[in-house]
């Protein structure tokens, strides 16, 4: 009997999400038990559905793919995470691995890479698309050249607040979305500006775009 592998699929674009689902379910035993088009929904579904693997894009509305990876890999019912994204920069790969991802597949890769990645991470192994494996070599040989993103200075909640601010939400709207007080959001915003050396909201938005938290 083929072992069933429960998968949560997180991808904001419906057409791509449908294609990924059809691809994943060509492999016997792979079952997509849930789909999400934003990060907050992904975390909620992961908690409820308890998938073995979460396949996620990095660039998501409301909560970034990195935060999704952190939540699902370190929660009370941890899952394995495979990132599927168009981003192939060293900082993106390093940040995903630091967040807890066990797999990293670029969207330009052959479809079989995703199937291989999911199978391997379910067996406790890791997978990187061959086109980004050189980043690991660079990270070991020249660690000072990378160091990951400036986002690593921020807490998970600060990242979440930054993304919501950059998406154009007011402080009151961010407070509602995060389920905290307005005073807490103002504190997060002040901390963001101090840590990043940024003193205007417009520049916070530019930073978030540059780091791939939101689309331009």
Topology readout:
Layout: E1 5-10, H1 14-24, E2 30-36, H2 39-49, E3 53-56, H3 65-74, E4 80-85, H4 90-99, E5 103-106, H5 111-122, E6 127-128, H6 134-141, H7 156-166, H8 171-178, H9 182-196, H10 201-210
Parallel strand pairs: 1-2, 1-3, 3-4, 4-5, 5-6
Helix pairs in contact: 2-3, 7-8, 7-9, 7-10, 8-9
How would you describe this protein?
This protein is α/β, with parallel strands linked by helices. The protein has two domains: 5-141, Response regulator (Rossmann fold), CATH 3.40.50; 150-210, Arc Repressor Mutant, subunit A (Orthogonal Bundle), CATH 1.10.10.10. The protein is 49% helix and 13% strand. The protein contains ten helices and six strands, in the order βαβαβαβαβαβααααα. The chain has helices at 14-24, 39-49, 65-74, 90-99, 111-122, 134-141, 156-166, 171-178, 182-196, 201-210, and strands at residues 5-10, 30-36, 53-56, 80-85, 103-106, 127-128. A six-stranded parallel β-sheet has the order 2-1-3-4-5-6, with helices on both faces. The longest helix is centred in the C-terminal third of the chain and has 15 residues, at 182-196. It is globular and about 55 Å long. 38% of the residues are buried.
